[in-house]
Amino acid sequence: MIPKVGNPLSVLELVDDLQRLGISYHFEAEISNLLEMIYCKHYKSHDEWHKMDLNLKALGFRLLRQRGYPVPHGTKFIIMNA
């Protein structure tokens, strides 16, 4: 059983590692529950979406889209010259 982790990036990295190792099928129910919680808490709200760092957005985007979640794909980046 996969423990519930408070940090969404750690959870997404764990799911990614399990997929890359080819053993994620052993934890399908747990992975589905964790991704559902992450999606509901962090990806449904546009306010939360804009607060996330790029690594969390990218990994979450890929993993959630693979599972059919409607994750937003557009975001505005402000490039500033130093």
Mean pLDDT: 81
Helix percentage: 55-70%
Task: Output the number of helix runs.
Answer: 4
Ends apart, CA distance between termini: 48 Å
Kindly list the characteristics that best describe this protein.
4 helices; single chain; 82 residues; globular; mainly alpha
Provide structural commentary:
α1 (8-21) runs antiparallel to α2 (28-43) and α1 packs across α4 (54-66). The chain is globular and about 35 Å long. 60% of the residues lie in helices and 0% in strands. By secondary structure, the chain is mostly helical. The longest helix has 16 residues, at 28-43. The chain starts with 7 loop residues before the first helix and ends in a 16-residue tail after the last helix. It has one domain.
Task: Describe the structure concisely for a colleague.
The protein has four helices and no strands. It has 82 residues and is mainly α.
Topology summary:
Elements: H1 8-21, H2 28-43, H3 46-51, H4 54-66
